[in-house]
Amino acid sequence: MERSAVSLGPTALAARDRLLAGLDAGRPGPGERLGAERELAERLGVSRSTIRAALADLERSGVIRRSRGRGGGIFVAERKVERDLTSLAGLPAYLRRQGFQSDARVLSTATIGADAETAAALGLSEPALVLEVVRVRLADGDPISLERALFPAERFPDLLDRSLGGSLYELLETHYGLVPGEAEERIDVVAAGAAEARLLGLRRGAPLLAVARIAWDAEGRAFERSHDLFRADRARIVVRARAGPAASTLVGAAVHARGGGG
After folding, report:
1. Backbone angles phi, psi at 255, to 5 degrees
2. Is 169 exposed, middle or buried (0-12, 13-18, 19+ CB in 10 A)?
3. Computed from CA positions of residues 94, 219, 134, 174, in that sequence, does the dihedral angle turn out positive or negative?
4. CA 175 – CA 241 distance, rounded (Å)
5. pLDDT tens digits, one per residue of 115-163
6. 80-258 CATH, one of 3.60.120.10, 3.40.1410.10, 3.30.40.230, 1.10.3720.10
7. Is domain 10-76 given the CATH code 1.10.10.10 in the classification?
8. DSSP at 25
9. Per-residue pLDDT tens over the stretch 228-244
10. Longest dimension (CA), the chain
Protein backbone atom coordinates (compact mmCIF):
# COMPACT_ATOMS: atom_id res chain seq x y z
CA MET A 1 0.00 0.00 0.00
CA GLU A 2 1.12 3.55 -0.70
CA ARG A 3 2.27 5.96 1.98
CA SER A 4 1.37 9.63 1.88
CA ALA A 5 3.75 12.48 2.54
CA VAL A 6 1.03 14.62 4.11
CA SER A 7 1.88 15.52 7.70
CA LEU A 8 -0.43 14.10 10.37
CA GLY A 9 -0.52 14.42 14.12
CA PRO A 10 0.87 11.47 16.07
CA THR A 11 -2.54 10.02 16.96
CA ALA A 12 -3.89 10.25 13.42
CA LEU A 13 -0.61 8.89 12.06
CA ALA A 14 -0.82 5.89 14.37
CA ALA A 15 -4.44 5.29 13.34
CA ARG A 16 -3.52 5.50 9.67
CA ASP A 17 -0.65 3.05 10.13
CA ARG A 18 -2.91 0.58 11.94
CA LEU A 19 -5.40 0.75 9.08
CA LEU A 20 -2.58 0.27 6.58
CA ALA A 21 -1.29 -2.76 8.44
CA GLY A 22 -4.67 -4.44 8.04
CA LEU A 23 -4.87 -3.51 4.36
CA ASP A 24 -1.35 -4.79 3.71
CA ALA A 25 -2.48 -8.09 5.18
CA GLY A 26 -5.50 -8.13 2.86
CA ARG A 27 -8.14 -7.32 5.49
CA PRO A 28 -10.37 -6.12 3.90
CA GLY A 29 -9.41 -6.83 0.31
CA PRO A 30 -9.44 -4.58 -2.76
CA GLY A 31 -12.88 -3.28 -3.61
CA GLU A 32 -14.33 -4.25 -0.23
CA ARG A 33 -15.82 -1.91 2.35
CA LEU A 34 -13.45 -0.61 4.97
CA GLY A 35 -16.18 0.42 7.40
CA ALA A 36 -17.96 3.56 8.56
CA GLU A 37 -16.06 6.37 10.31
CA ARG A 38 -17.86 5.76 13.61
CA GLU A 39 -17.13 2.03 13.51
CA LEU A 40 -13.45 2.57 12.68
CA ALA A 41 -13.04 5.20 15.39
CA GLU A 42 -14.52 2.86 18.00
CA ARG A 43 -12.41 -0.07 16.81
CA LEU A 44 -9.17 1.93 17.07
CA GLY A 45 -10.15 3.83 20.20
CA VAL A 46 -9.76 7.30 18.66
CA SER A 47 -12.00 10.28 18.05
CA ARG A 48 -14.07 10.81 14.91
CA SER A 49 -11.91 13.78 13.95
CA THR A 50 -8.77 11.65 14.26
CA ILE A 51 -10.11 8.82 12.12
CA ARG A 52 -11.41 11.38 9.62
CA ALA A 53 -7.90 12.84 9.25
CA ALA A 54 -6.36 9.38 8.85
CA LEU A 55 -8.94 8.41 6.22
CA ALA A 56 -8.46 11.67 4.34
CA ASP A 57 -4.74 10.95 4.11
CA LEU A 58 -5.39 7.42 2.83
CA GLU A 59 -7.81 8.78 0.24
CA ARG A 60 -5.31 11.38 -0.96
CA SER A 61 -2.70 8.68 -1.46
CA GLY A 62 -5.13 6.46 -3.37
CA VAL A 63 -5.31 3.67 -0.78
CA ILE A 64 -9.06 4.05 -0.23
CA ARG A 65 -11.92 5.63 -2.15
CA ARG A 66 -15.23 7.10 -1.07
CA SER A 67 -18.51 6.54 -2.87
CA ARG A 68 -21.61 8.57 -2.11
CA GLY A 69 -25.28 7.82 -2.51
CA ARG A 70 -27.08 4.50 -2.20
CA GLY A 71 -24.55 1.73 -1.88
CA GLY A 72 -21.84 4.24 -1.03
CA GLY A 73 -19.25 4.13 1.70
CA ILE A 74 -15.51 3.81 2.21
CA PHE A 75 -13.84 1.14 0.07
CA VAL A 76 -10.35 -0.26 -0.31
CA ALA A 77 -8.95 0.90 -3.65
CA GLU A 78 -8.50 -1.72 -6.33
CA ARG A 79 -5.06 -3.17 -6.93
CA LYS A 80 -2.78 -1.28 -9.28
CA VAL A 81 -1.14 -2.52 -12.43
CA GLU A 82 1.99 -0.83 -13.70
CA ARG A 83 2.30 -0.36 -17.41
CA ASP A 84 5.89 0.63 -17.99
CA LEU A 85 6.23 2.86 -21.03
CA THR A 86 10.02 2.44 -21.03
CA SER A 87 9.65 -0.92 -22.78
CA LEU A 88 7.60 -1.77 -25.85
CA ALA A 89 5.32 -4.62 -24.88
CA GLY A 90 1.62 -5.36 -24.75
CA LEU A 91 -0.46 -4.57 -21.71
CA PRO A 92 -1.24 -8.29 -21.09
CA ALA A 93 2.43 -8.91 -20.28
CA TYR A 94 2.31 -6.32 -17.51
CA LEU A 95 -0.97 -7.67 -16.20
CA ARG A 96 0.27 -11.24 -16.04
CA ARG A 97 3.54 -10.18 -14.44
CA GLN A 98 1.63 -8.69 -11.53
CA GLY A 99 -0.87 -11.50 -11.03
CA PHE A 100 -3.88 -10.17 -12.94
CA GLN A 101 -6.05 -12.16 -15.30
CA SER A 102 -5.79 -10.42 -18.66
CA ASP A 103 -8.50 -10.53 -21.29
CA ALA A 104 -9.97 -8.41 -24.06
CA ARG A 105 -13.44 -8.08 -25.52
CA VAL A 106 -13.29 -7.52 -29.27
CA LEU A 107 -15.92 -4.95 -30.26
CA SER A 108 -15.25 -4.74 -33.99
CA THR A 109 -12.74 -5.42 -36.74
CA ALA A 110 -12.61 -3.95 -40.23
CA THR A 111 -10.46 -3.31 -43.27
CA ILE A 112 -10.69 0.39 -44.05
CA GLY A 113 -8.99 3.01 -46.16
CA ALA A 114 -6.23 4.88 -44.35
CA ASP A 115 -6.86 8.57 -43.89
CA ALA A 116 -4.07 10.99 -44.67
CA GLU A 117 -2.85 11.21 -41.08
CA THR A 118 -2.76 7.44 -40.62
CA ALA A 119 -1.04 6.91 -43.96
CA ALA A 120 1.62 9.44 -43.04
CA ALA A 121 2.15 7.91 -39.59
CA LEU A 122 2.53 4.39 -41.00
CA GLY A 123 4.55 5.44 -44.03
CA LEU A 124 1.90 4.25 -46.50
CA SER A 125 1.19 5.54 -49.97
CA GLU A 126 -2.37 6.68 -50.55
CA PRO A 127 -4.66 4.98 -51.22
CA ALA A 128 -3.80 2.23 -48.73
CA LEU A 129 -5.76 -0.16 -46.56
CA VAL A 130 -5.35 -0.64 -42.81
CA LEU A 131 -6.73 -3.21 -40.40
CA GLU A 132 -8.78 -1.77 -37.54
CA VAL A 133 -9.20 -3.61 -34.23
CA VAL A 134 -11.39 -2.10 -31.51
CA ARG A 135 -11.35 -3.80 -28.09
CA VAL A 136 -12.09 -3.27 -24.41
CA ARG A 137 -9.15 -4.42 -22.28
CA LEU A 138 -10.06 -6.27 -19.07
CA ALA A 139 -8.09 -6.90 -15.88
CA ASP A 140 -9.61 -9.50 -13.58
CA GLY A 141 -12.80 -9.08 -15.58
CA ASP A 142 -13.04 -5.30 -15.07
CA PRO A 143 -12.84 -2.85 -18.01
CA ILE A 144 -9.60 -0.88 -17.91
CA SER A 145 -9.25 0.66 -21.35
CA LEU A 146 -10.87 1.08 -24.76
CA GLU A 147 -8.40 0.42 -27.58
CA ARG A 148 -8.48 1.24 -31.29
CA ALA A 149 -5.46 -0.04 -33.20
CA LEU A 150 -4.60 0.30 -36.89
CA PHE A 151 -2.10 -1.90 -38.78
CA PRO A 152 -0.97 -1.92 -42.45
CA ALA A 153 -3.19 -4.46 -44.21
CA GLU A 154 -0.58 -5.50 -46.75
CA ARG A 155 1.97 -6.31 -44.08
CA PHE A 156 -0.33 -8.44 -41.91
CA PRO A 157 -2.57 -10.51 -44.20
CA ASP A 158 -5.34 -12.52 -42.51
CA LEU A 159 -4.72 -10.81 -39.17
CA LEU A 160 -8.43 -10.21 -38.63
CA ASP A 161 -9.14 -13.93 -39.09
CA ARG A 162 -7.03 -14.80 -36.06
CA SER A 163 -7.97 -14.80 -32.37
CA LEU A 164 -7.63 -11.20 -31.16
CA GLY A 165 -8.48 -11.59 -27.49
CA GLY A 166 -4.88 -11.75 -26.29
CA SER A 167 -1.79 -9.64 -26.88
CA LEU A 168 -1.68 -8.25 -30.41
CA TYR A 169 2.08 -7.74 -30.11
CA GLU A 170 2.61 -11.39 -29.24
CA LEU A 171 0.37 -12.35 -32.15
CA LEU A 172 2.37 -10.19 -34.57
CA GLU A 173 5.66 -11.58 -33.28
CA THR A 174 4.52 -15.21 -33.49
CA HIS A 175 2.76 -15.23 -36.88
CA TYR A 176 4.44 -12.40 -38.76
CA GLY A 177 7.97 -12.35 -37.34
CA LEU A 178 7.60 -8.80 -36.02
CA VAL A 179 10.38 -7.51 -33.78
CA PRO A 180 9.17 -4.36 -31.96
CA GLY A 181 11.67 -1.53 -31.83
CA GLU A 182 10.36 1.67 -30.30
CA ALA A 183 7.20 3.71 -29.84
CA GLU A 184 6.12 7.28 -29.29
CA GLU A 185 3.18 7.79 -26.96
CA ARG A 186 1.36 11.06 -26.33
CA ILE A 187 -0.95 11.30 -23.32
CA ASP A 188 -3.86 13.69 -22.80
CA VAL A 189 -6.81 13.89 -20.44
CA VAL A 190 -10.21 13.83 -22.16
CA ALA A 191 -13.85 13.48 -21.08
CA ALA A 192 -15.73 10.24 -21.70
CA GLY A 193 -18.49 10.46 -24.27
CA ALA A 194 -21.67 8.44 -23.96
CA ALA A 195 -20.29 5.42 -25.82
CA GLU A 196 -16.95 5.34 -23.97
CA ALA A 197 -18.69 5.74 -20.62
CA ARG A 198 -21.02 2.82 -21.34
CA LEU A 199 -18.22 0.52 -22.46
CA LEU A 200 -15.94 1.35 -19.52
CA GLY A 201 -18.62 1.45 -16.83
CA LEU A 202 -18.31 5.17 -16.13
CA ARG A 203 -20.53 8.21 -16.03
CA ARG A 204 -20.57 10.44 -19.09
CA GLY A 205 -17.95 13.17 -18.80
CA ALA A 206 -15.68 11.13 -16.49
CA PRO A 207 -11.96 11.77 -17.11
CA LEU A 208 -10.02 9.39 -19.32
CA LEU A 209 -6.32 9.13 -20.10
CA ALA A 210 -5.97 9.16 -23.88
CA VAL A 211 -2.77 7.48 -25.10
CA ALA A 212 -1.96 7.99 -28.80
CA ARG A 213 0.80 5.65 -29.97
CA ILE A 214 2.89 5.07 -33.08
CA ALA A 215 5.14 2.01 -32.96
CA TRP A 216 8.07 1.02 -35.16
CA ASP A 217 9.77 -2.33 -35.62
CA ALA A 218 13.46 -2.99 -35.07
CA GLU A 219 14.20 -1.86 -38.63
CA GLY A 220 12.45 1.46 -38.16
CA ARG A 221 9.26 0.64 -40.09
CA ALA A 222 6.02 1.88 -38.54
CA PHE A 223 3.59 -0.98 -37.92
CA GLU A 224 0.95 0.40 -35.53
CA ARG A 225 -1.05 3.54 -34.95
CA SER A 226 -3.36 3.28 -31.98
CA HIS A 227 -5.45 5.28 -29.57
CA ASP A 228 -6.22 3.92 -26.09
CA LEU A 229 -8.58 5.39 -23.52
CA PHE A 230 -7.72 4.40 -19.94
CA ARG A 231 -10.08 4.93 -17.02
CA ALA A 232 -8.53 7.81 -15.11
CA ASP A 233 -9.99 6.55 -11.83
CA ARG A 234 -7.99 3.36 -12.34
CA ALA A 235 -4.77 4.81 -13.77
CA ARG A 236 -2.04 7.32 -13.10
CA ILE A 237 1.10 8.37 -14.92
CA VAL A 238 4.53 8.19 -13.30
CA VAL A 239 7.60 9.76 -14.93
CA ARG A 240 11.10 8.57 -14.09
CA ALA A 241 14.07 10.79 -14.97
CA ARG A 242 17.83 10.41 -14.70
CA ALA A 243 20.33 13.22 -14.49
CA GLY A 244 22.87 13.08 -17.30
CA PRO A 245 26.33 14.69 -17.41
CA ALA A 246 24.98 17.95 -18.81
CA ALA A 247 21.29 17.97 -17.94
CA SER A 248 18.44 15.87 -16.70
CA THR A 249 17.36 13.33 -19.29
CA LEU A 250 13.93 11.78 -19.40
CA VAL A 251 14.33 8.03 -19.47
CA GLY A 252 10.78 6.79 -19.15
CA ALA A 253 7.23 7.03 -17.98
CA ALA A 254 4.70 4.57 -16.67
CA VAL A 255 0.96 4.19 -16.45
CA HIS A 256 -0.36 2.51 -13.30
CA ALA A 257 -3.81 1.05 -13.85
CA ARG A 258 -5.76 0.21 -10.72
CA GLY A 259 -7.25 -3.23 -10.89
CA GLY A 260 -6.67 -3.43 -13.95
CA GLY A 261 -1.83 -1.66 -26.08
CA GLY A 262 -1.40 -4.40 -27.86
Report:
1. -110, 125
2. buried
3. negative
4. 36
5. 999 999 999 987 899 999 999 988 778 888 899 999 999 999 999 999 9
6. 3.40.1410.10
7. yes
8. T
9. 998 887 776 666 666 65
10. 72
